TrEMBL record:
Free-text remark on how the cofactor is bound: Binds 1 divalent metal cation per subunit; can use either Mg(2+) or Mn(2+).
Keyword set, alphabetical order: Cytoplasm, Hydrolase, Magnesium, Manganese, Metal-binding, Nucleotide metabolism, Nucleotide-binding, Nucleus
Organism field: Phialocephala subalpina
Protein's cellular compartments: Cytoplasm; Nucleus
Protein name, entry field: Inosine triphosphate pyrophosphatase
Signal peptide boundaries: none
SUPFAM superfamilies named in the record: ITPase-like (SSF52972)
Pfam families registered for this protein in UniProt: Ham1p_like
Cofactor: Mg(2+); Mn(2+)
Binding-site list for ITP: 10-15, 50, 66-67, 142-145, 163, 168-169
Length: 184
């Protein structure tokens, strides 16, 4: 049986490369960049809303992702707003947010939402990796990876193959893969 064709809604080449590496030949993944309005709210609400909008726009099956970085000392902020916090503050500024707190623990959260098409309810798949926020180490070409440390290494310092075996994105995509295989 041929793999299911999915429109992965992203303009981020690094995300696309990681998702393709993790999903392998489970699905026929096509990338499409859409400028979607993003609501404010809980992680799952944001992903589901974005997924519904994308399914309407492409008139077919879609996969969207929402990635968060949640600082435990800040009650999970910046959370789904990490993209804007990172743009405004940079890696040093994100570290400075935690300067007054002894707790530097954080969660990397990845939420994928899949929708069969317009009018269908999105299905949510989420992965969380516990780590801590550290001064930036490693290449700075992929978002907040240089400041999120997992078991002694930042995501940026990790070999991509190794990162793809433990990351929040991997954990969420494993759930998606299992679900897709059960639906086939």
């Amino acid at each position: 049986m041929a793999p299911k064709m999915l429109n992965f809604i992203t303009g981020n080449e690094n995300k696309l490369t990681e998702v393709k590496a993790i999903l392998g030949d489970t699905v026929d993944l096509q990338s499409q960049s859409l400028d979607l309005v993003e609501i404010q709210g809980a992680i799952e609400e944001i992903a589901a809303d974005k997924c519904r909008r994308a399914a309407e726009a492409v008139k077919g099956p879609v996969l969207v992702e929402d990635t968060c970085l949640c600082f435990n000392a800040l009650k999970e902020l910046p959370g789904p707003y990490i993209k804007w916090f990172l743009e405004a503050l940079g890696h040093d500024g994100l570290n400075n947010l935690l300067a007054a707190y002894p707790d530097k623990s954080a969660q990397a959260v990845c939420t994928f939402a899949y929708c069969e098409g317009p009018g269908h309810k999105p299905v949510i798949f989420q992965g969380r990796t516990n780590g801590k926020i550290v001064p930036a180490r490693g290449p700075t070409n992929f978002g907040w990876d240089p400041i999120f440390e997992y078991q002694g290494q930042t995501y940026a310092e990790m070999d991509k193959v190794e990162k793809n075996k433990i990351s929040h994105r991997f954990l969420a995509l494993e759930k998606l893969k299992t679900w897709l295989q059960s639906e086939a």
